[in-house]
Design a protein that fits this description.
It is built from 14 helices and no strands. By secondary structure, the protein is mainly α.
């Protein structure tokens, strides 16, 4: 019996052991597969990174060449660094004045647009106005509507704001884009119990909005500001339509005018392009944390 028992026990243990061995092997194989996955992801990320970085490096390489070196070897690596191209482009393109104009348009336009998103998004998110679902749908539909340039042109003309910096700031400020929708999603993640507690303490609508909602919504407000600032900084079509005086151009329109004058001087044109893009890239590196937090908060809401 004992021999049989041992045999039965051995017979019973064998499939279990085999199963346990198979399970352990599958775990090892799965862990090996999981262990290999990050390297594959790193490969794809590296490929995408190269696709984005290579044009920037090529642009920088072109900007540091002399005109004769670029004509001789357009795709070769620069042999003699011409840092003076940046100073020459800055001077000849009048980018100092354009840069100041753009800073004014971006700060004022994005600040006003963020305030508009706040005032529009908060009552819709809390249901303090009738037809909240309609307004949310309207915020989404606005994203797909084309820009009514001729209507804006006629409006500014009749308000005597055509070819004025105030008129341009108002036009770029109302182009809030995804701002109200993003802010509505973020405010929805804030518990409504806070509204009731504030009402019990006697806080009014505006007091509650500025003392409670604004501090809690800093990531979303910063995200709306960044997105609109990026759009205003790169905006060129509206500027060419609403301005007849080139001295009031933003830096993107100034770059377009510079291209028309120095279209054959590629190193100078590349240096001007880097001058226009550099402030935006540097600014994004410092405030990208707010952008990620704001978008994630809006998605959760």
């Amino acid at each position: 019996m004992s021999t049989t028992g041992k045999t039965q026990t051995g017979t019973l243990k064998t499939p279990y052991s085999r199963h346990r061995t198979t399970g352990a092997s599958s775990k090892v194989a799965r862990s090996q597969r999981v262990g290999k996955t990050p390297w594959l992801m790193y490969f794809f990320v590296a490929c995408i990174l190269i696709l984005f970085i290579f044009p920037l490096l090529y642009l920088l390489n072109t900007a540091l060449k002399s005109t004769s070196e670029f004509v001789t070897n357009p795709v070769g690596i620069v042999s003699s660094f011409q840092w003076g191209n940046f100073a020459e482009a800055w001077s000849k393109g009048n980018f100092g004045a354009y840069f100041l104009n753009t800073v004014i348009y971006t700060v004022c336009g994005a600040g006003l647009g963020t305030a508009i998103s706040l005032f529009m998004g908060f009552p819709v998110a809390r249901g303090y106005i009738k037809g909240s679902k309609f307004w949310s749908l309207l915020f989404t539909l606005v994203l797909f509507l084309p820009n009514a340039l001729m209507t804006q042109f006629q409006l500014l003309l009749r308000l005597h704001l055509y070819n004025t910096q105030i008129g341009y700031i108002l036009m770029v400020a109302v182009g809030v884009g995804i701002g109200p929708l993003l802010f509505t999603g973020f405010v929805s993640s804030i518990p409504k119990d806070l509204d009731e507690a504030a009402a019990i303490d006697g806080a009014g609508y505006w007091t509650y909005l500025f003392k409670f909602i604004v501090p809690l919504s800093k990531p979303a407000l910063m995200t709306v500001f960044i997105l609109q600032a990026v759009w205003i900084w790169n905006e060129i079509i509206m500027a060419t339509v609403l301005f007849s005086d080139q001295n009031k151009f933003p830096i993107s329109a100034g770059l377009f005018a510079f291209k028309g004058t120095y279209s054959n001087n590629w190193p100078l044109l590349a240096a001007a392009t880097i001058i226009v893009a550099a402030p935006l890239v540097l600014g994004y590196l410092f405030i990208q944390r707010y952008l990620v937090n704001g978008v994630l908060g809006a998605v959760k809401g």
